[in-house]
Amino acid sequence: MPHYQPKSRCASVQWKDPSSPLTKKFKVTPSAGKVMLTMFWDYQGVLLSYFQKCHENVNSASYCEVLLKLWNAIRRRHPGQLASGVLLLQDNARPHTAQAAQERIQELKWELLEHSPYSPYLAPSDFHLFDLLKTTMVANVLLMMEEVEMEVQKWLRQQLNDFYAVGFYALVKQWNNRITDGGGHVEKSFISRF
User: Fold this and answer.
1) Most distant CA atoms of the chain, gap in Å
2) In this prediction, what percent of the chain has a pLDDT beyond 70?
3) Where would one find coiled-coil regions in this protein (predicted)?
4) What is the pLDDT of residue 28?
5) Which of 6, 10, 70, 172 has the greatest number of CB atoms lying within 10 Å of its CB?
């Protein structure tokens, strides 16, 4: 989440006469950087939202620690879920696909759902959650990391109960569409579980 107020291309559009001179647009650069949010959620809501510390690298070791935090969050929120099995959908970022992370997932006895590279339409956080969150955050000028974190947590709490269910079932619909279109990338056996 940006610390500064980014302006979308659409926000700067103006009606002009064809003979009017073009206005120069200056690129706004982030001065304070960004806050990295790793979030895990299911159809009932957020399981874990973890904010990476400023200037901390995201690597396989830090991701393995986050997976343990997720295990504890699932144990607290859905105690029986760990015994009945956890399906994990993550993107193909290097820390997620590293051997240490893969071993941690096996150690936790979770089943990993394959995610096709360059396919944001198959990642519910991309097509359902982060776009809406970023749109909301554009209206706020936040300078401190703590302010960004508080606003994100507040936004997550304000979502109605069915917000997460809608995103979850939109994923199932996206998968079904990919299978129907013959686009592959999704195993039919996973669809039948939902």
Assistant:
1) 69
2) 68
3) none
4) 47
5) 70
